[in-house]
């Protein structure tokens, strides 16, 4: 029997643009997904990834029940079998060694579920392991480290006030493709910036590649990769030396400006200009225009962070905003309080200063660095990781030196992957556990409410029921803790409380009595901020299916939100000053003779890191298999457009097709990241499908930014030659 079509309004949870969508549902299938134009906040970025979300839900290779590895293939199993077996094997590993023998890697999509990370942490605390590996170390750690040192909390992420901005200094970001998101949701951000430009605002894009965004910019500074720190330090120097700073903010809001002055006094503009390979006169002009503009902002993103110098560059971007009076002022960066105090709530979760046994490095933002994971798995000793969960991640492709990680994962006693399909990183999994897609899931993303560029609440309602065999991560972690006999959140009684609610639900035949994260959502709202003088009630949330703008954008919340003890912005954290001095003392960057090119990266509108590039019809054949080379470099190497070329580094080698273009600056070659991930077929036993080439095989995981622990993902040195 078919049922009449119905319409569900919700939002896309692939990226932080959080587009409102309208889903037409027929027979529990999402047959059409379009932008929800009644959404008052977000739909303008709506893209093909959201439009085709049902293709992943209905992926022909989707895992539909837990699957256990038997020899070289997989057999279907029940959840009871899966949880019992995994719990027993994990307990055995812990008993033989210590809790750190069980580890987790969690990737970017984990943050788009309202319950995943909370209950994963509850389980990790139950197990009492410190072997926690986080995608931040290949993405946003620099931002967390800077926010912590300058503002007192890793979660103090300022949002962009685009509509009042007269001068955009966009460093290492390509918002025309990526949407304006990295720890902030600024719907239609790029369009709005272009609208400001049409009214006279200036857009400066700093990028070694002439991207779609750089093409539209008034000024494009084709910086040498990983040398943004030098460029931004030069701008800080121009502003401080010439007295162009915002004096009240430098004395009242900020502390440490004198230490900055001392730092720039020891830096030389010509030297800095040489390092970043941008003309000194151009740097001076941008710095002066930036300081003089009425409303202005520096925005730094992944192009800044994914280098050995990432934290210093990220820091100096924030410094420019602070010393020119851009914080909490129109056209600059504000603090959005959101409807819950995410900073307070996350603080309650507690952070660990644990040092990894081999590297001795501490956690950043609650996790260790992915680049350390292979050694922690393969090196014997107390705390050697023997069992792992990969939760929403594909680190073999998205992280550095995937070949090394792949070899390590193969040595585990137990590897559990929670995902929709079996990808490259799940190749050695002993258990594949089927996840639930956002179209099939309810989410209240309260913890990111302070990243929206206006006060906003939207309940992510599910559009369709998940396959009966799929389970949300929270449920998996809760069941594992119970089966392992370890108290969730280290809270005695929590497990028996959950079991009691389940028993009550069974006995009374009222499934609604069983514990779900909805209880947490309600608690969060009940203790959240007041709107119009009262707390948000659940029925208010339900009354706004298109999303709810809670009030006007407000300034004036930044200072009180600061978590530094003195409620001031620390512009010169000693560790950053010391590292900057170290960089200044290093010789100017030069490529090693054997590896003369730097490897840049590109994203596409229609893929999401290492996934969504396998969806039928979304990508033409050959996508993800080209290396873009500047014409001068190509002619020197005797390479023509379409030639087969080999790109290699000290750690890896890949073959691709040459595309000759003047988009990269000479000396830089581009290979898109996120490709080269196989999708296996554990149910149908068809051969693995492969899409493109994994360029991160070329990135050495060894050297990392000492502050953020991020490797040189987008500035590794490589060699290029004709193949054959
Ligand atoms: N060279 C280079 N490397 C990069 C980057 C770069 O710019 N250059 N970018 C980096 C960035 S910004 C990031 S964020 C990282 C990403 O790195 P990761 O987060 O490790 O990997 P993703 O490629 O995002 O893979 C996410 C996986 O989660 C699965 N998934 C999606 N939704 C869900 C869900 O709801 N539940 C479960 N259980 N699984 C789900 C997907 O199917 C996919 O397998 O990669 C980084 N790598
Ligand atoms: N379509 C699509 N949208 C996405 C994603 C996706 O994979 N696909 N990923 C989402 C995620 S997880 C994130 S974190 C955000 C990321 O959002 P962005 O940070 O805007 O990511 P990119 O589009 O990779 O832009 C980074 C730019 O930095 C440049 N760059 C590289 N090295 C340097 C350098 O040394 N200096 C400077 N100045 N620039 C450099 C690159 O050439 C690139 O143009 O996007 C999100 N949105
Ligand atoms: S993936 Fe596309 S549709 Fe989904 S939130 Fe991001 S920009 Fe919007
Ligand atoms: Mo990311």
UniProtKB/TrEMBL annotation:
User: Which residues does the UniProt record annotate as the domain 4Fe-4S Mo/W bis-MGD-type?
Assistant: 5-61
Please indicate if the UniProt record lists Oxidoreductase as a keyword. yes
Does the UniProt entry include the keyword Iron?
yes
Cofactor(s) required, per the database record: Mo-bis(molybdopterin guanine dinucleotide)
| E.C. numbers | 1.7.99.4
Keywords, comma-separated and alphabetical: Iron, Iron-sulfur, Metal-binding, Molybdenum, Oxidoreductase
Q: Name one Pfam family in it.
A: Molybdop_Fe4S4
Q: From what superkingdom does this record's organism come?
A: Bacteria
Q: A Gene Ontology MF term for this entry?
A: molybdopterin cofactor binding
Entry's family note:
Belongs to the prokaryotic molybdopterin-containing oxidoreductase family.
Q: By what name is this protein known?
A: Anaerobic dehydrogenase, typically selenocysteine-containing
Species whose genome carries this gene: Mycolicibacterium aurum (Mycobacterium aurum)
